[in-house]
């Protein structure tokens, strides 16, 4: 997992061939309020917008998730968003089967820690990062970029 501000994103572009495309999209798009759903797609990169009421911690932990085929870059447009996190290797209680079509696997485990993103910050979540996003007491406005592994 990597947490940083968009102004420092260039430091991470060498980590994956599609990261530059993803960060260029975030740097060049004027985000005020995003539309929900698919916003952008190019080879190996898809960006989705989320706008609406956030979740409580308990609601978010129902979708404590990770991905096998994609790396998430989650970008905070609003004032803040909290996440739960735990290393995948320490998760022992699956919550259903892996969904290949949606590339998502859920766990019933509790996070080891919580962290908060603020406006113009991002988190890069690799397949080994189990995460519970969208925790906020206000309106959530964010972009999630799926980068093929």
Labels describing this entry:
single chain, 149 residues, mainly beta, Jelly Rolls, six-stranded antiparallel beta sheet, three-stranded antiparallel beta sheet, 2 helices, 10% helix, 44% strand, NanQ/TabA/YiaL
CATH topology: Jelly Rolls
> What does the overall shape look like?
globular
Head-to-tail CA distance between termini:
14 Å
Please describe the biggest sheet, giving its number of strands, its sense, and whether it closes into a barrel.
6 strands, antiparallel
Fourth CATH level, the homologous superfamily: YhcH/YjgK/YiaL
Helix content estimate: 10-25%
Give unreliable regions as ranges: none
Q: What is the succession of H and E elements?
A: EHEEHEEEEEEEE
What percentage of amino acids are in beta strands? 35-45%
What count of helical segments does DSSP give?
A: 2
| pLDDT averaged residue by residue | 96
Number of domains: 1
* Largest sheet strand order: 1-9-5-11-3-2
Structural class: mainly beta
Question: What would CATH call the architecture?
Answer: Sandwich
Number of strands: 11
Q: Quick one: CATH class?
A: Mainly Beta
Rg from Cα:
14 Å
Plain-language structure description:
With about 150 residues, the protein is mainly beta. It has one domain: YhcH/YjgK/YiaL (Jelly Rolls, Sandwich). It is about 10% helix and about 45% strand. It has helices at about 20-30, 55-60, and strands spanning about 1-5, 35-40, 45-55, 65, 70-75, 80-85, 105, 115-120, 120-125, 130-135, 140-149. It has a 6-stranded antiparallel sheet with strand order 1-9-5-11-3-2, covered by helices on one side. Strands 8-6-10 form a 3-stranded antiparallel sheet. The two termini are about 15 Å apart. The model has no long low-confidence stretch (mean pLDDT about 95). This is YhcH/YjgK/YiaL family protein. Pfam families: DUF386. InterPro entries: NanQ/TabA/YiaL (IPR004375), NanQ/TabA/YiaL_sf (IPR037012).
């Amino acid at each position: 997992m990597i947490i940083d501000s968009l102004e420092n994103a260039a430091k991470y572009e060498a980590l994956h061939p599609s990261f530059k495309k993803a960060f260029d999209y975030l740097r060049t798009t004027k985000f005020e309020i995003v539309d929900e759903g698919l916003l952008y797609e190019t080879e190996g990169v898809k960006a989705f917008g989320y706008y609406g009421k956030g979740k409580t911690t308990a609601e978010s932990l129902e979708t404590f998730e990770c991905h096998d085929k994609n790396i998430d870059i989650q970008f905070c447009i609003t004032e803040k968003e909290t996440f739960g996190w735990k290393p995948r290797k320490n998760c022992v209680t699956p919550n259903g089967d892996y969904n290949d079509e949606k590339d998502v696997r859920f766990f019933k485990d509790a996070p080891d820690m919580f962290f908060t993103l603020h406006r113009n910050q991002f988190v890069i979540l690799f397949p080994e990062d189990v995460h519970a996003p969208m925790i906020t007491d206000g309106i959530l406005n964010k972009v999630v970029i799926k980068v093929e592994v």
